[in-house]
Amino acid sequence: MSAAPRPVRLGPRSLAALALVGAVGVAAFGWPFLAPPTSRISAHAQDAPWLFAGLLVLLVAVVAATISESGLGPKAVAMLGVLAATGAALRPIGAGTAGIEPMFFLLVLSGRVLGPGFGFVLGAVTMFASALLTGGVGPWMPFQMLAMGWFTMGAGLLPGAARLRGRAELLMLSAYGFLAAFAYGTVMNLAGWPFLGALSSDIAFDPRAGVPANLARFLAYCLATSLGWDLGRALCTVALTLALGPALLRALRRATRRAAFETAVTFDAPAG
User: Fold this and answer.
1) pLDDT score, position 65
2) What's the CA gap between 208 and 45, in Å, rounded?
3) CB atoms within 10 A of CB 243
4) Which 3 state secondary structure label does DSSP give 158?
5) Apex CA 261: angle with CA 62 and CA 74, to 5°?
6) Going by fewer Cβ within 10 Å, which terminus of the chain is more open, N or C?
7) Torsions phi, psi of 266, nearest 5?
8) 265: which residues sit within 8 A by CB, 6+ positions away?
């Protein structure tokens, strides 16, 4: 069984752009553990998240543009718009309800079928659209866009895209969705945690403390603030993947075959 055609084939420029934004993203999320207490970043702990947020906006835009130049044609743009709009509409359904976020399962399955390049763009665009829809625009939005881009891209990198089908594929996607839901919550905690530095709390980031002390504070912060929400997101993703995954995977694969992304569009010369 051959794999469905992918709407985006990553070339050298796209891979280089993804590597760049990945490296900067790791620094943007992990700077509380990477910067020593005597660094200028730690001295401006309340400003650093804002600076990284502005940088990430530019980098995500550059990556999306680079991937688009590598072959995101009209058909792929149309599918991107439909899936991003669907994901953005699904996100508010479970807002404020124990982490019930059906958007995540849609992005996992979409990334699986459509590949890592399309997946990264889809994840970032979906989070941007949902932020506009729900009024969730703020310094956290670029971090959400990058984290969701990673989340969806990872699904496209899972093995067996050409041959693995049926129950085995669903179990793999469910396991990935479960773990990635926790990973997403953890990295987003890293984005918001430094803002607590000015508060008097045993779980707040302390720019004067070392890595072991701040790691213990961060783990306590995750347990106290987001464990229940992340567990709800993970269980919701698994349940929807097992229940709706077979039908949605068939629909996505059928759509990609009919779209014939890798077939060049040609125009007949006028008769005369």
Assistant:
1) 66
2) 10
3) 12
4) coil
5) 55
6) C
7) -120, 155
8) 73, 74
Provide the token pair at 223.
């347990």
Distance CA 246, CA 250 (A): 6
CA distances, 2 to each of 5, 6, 63, 66, 164 (Å): 9, 12, 29, 27, 10
CA count, 13 A, side-chain hemisphere, 177:
30
CA distances for 57 relative to 1, 15, 63, 118, 159, angstroms: 39, 18, 10, 18, 30
DSSP H stretches of helix in 135-271:
141-156, 166-192, 211-225, 227-259
Q: Tens digit of pLDDT per residue, the chain (272 long)?
A: 555 566 666 667 777 777 877 787 787 788 777 766 555 554 444 555 565 666 666 666 766 666 666 556 677 778 888 999 999 888 877 655 666 788 899 999 999 998 888 888 899 889 888 888 776 777 777 888 889 999 999 999 999 888 888 999 999 999 999 999 999 999 988 887 877 765 557 888 887 778 888 888 899 999 988 888 899 899 999 999 999 999 999 999 988 887 665 554 444 455 54
272, 250, 253: which is closest to 261 by C-alpha?
253
The residue written with tokens 């041959």 in the block is 163
Amino acid of residue 229: W
Q: Give the residue carrying structure tokens 């790791």.
A: 26
- Residue 95: what residue type? A
What amino acid is encoded at 19 in this protein? Answer: A
